Amino acid sequence: MVMAVRAQIELVICDLDNTLYDWVTFFSSAFDAMVNEAIRVLGVPKDQLLDELQDVHRRYHSSEQPFALLDTVSVVAAFPGASRRERLDRLDSAFHAFNSARKATLKPYPGVVETLGAIEATGARIAAHTEATVANAEFRLNKLGLVRYFSRLYAVADAGEGHPAPELLHKSGVGISHVRALMLHERKPDRKILEEICAAEGVEPDRTLYVGDSLVRDISMAKAAGVHSAWAKYGTKYSPEHWNRLVRVTHWTTEDVKRAQEASKLYGHTVPDVVLERSFGELLDHYDFVRPTAP
Length: 295
Description:
Elements: E1 8-9, E2 11-14, H1 23-42, H2 46-60, H3 73-78, H4 84-90, H5 92-105, H6 112-121, E3 125-133, H7 134-143, E4 152-156, E5 179-182, H8 191-201, E6 208-212, H9 215-225, E7 228-232, H10 240-248, H11 254-267, E8 274-276, E9 288-289
Helix pairs in contact: 1-5, 1-10, 8-9, 9-11
């Protein structure tokens, strides 16, 4: 019986959200907790505040703008003349609710830490690629103790006014020494993104593996760029209620939704090289990870 030869992988490129942790569940839970406390403080209808948050998200082209609440019409009107820092203080209980829910729900998927450690031990290189902003991606990787496994982070450039009280910021962990900030137009499933990452890392596409939870955006991009693809199917298993909460305040415009629908028609039937049914750890059953031949 002839045994199949397993691909040798020098570079693993990991999507983050819903590949290494359940972003949908954690963010939906934390966002809802924040909004519920904010409407108690402000005395405004929930739908009104959600509409205003969506407007802010669209302004910054991101549904994950940590302090979007401070820039809503209702908050500005509730505290006339107040600085963003003063608004932050007035809404401290709302942000505390967000942080508490995040602490309870943001966890690595089972097997993620052990598998990243096993890959790192082989000498293979691991890079992170996400459409989250640099600040949010680094925060989560630090919070989850995963930052040590990544040699480079490719994430979207930060937008907005930043933290209203920067003196309160503190970083946990060591951070990623090499970060490439992507522009808004550098979006999945553009194959050029992966071609440029492979070139920057000095690894050929056929020695590279991309792991992601979206067939349309992650796997189709990997296939087009000629890199190996592993679909994190386990990352698609979350409550519709959580997803609907996110859709309610999405930054996507009607045009964005139309583009997504067209992409789904084009790439929705993409077949990944490997399907990870239950865990990230299944990668070790399919690939051999080796040290890159190029420095």
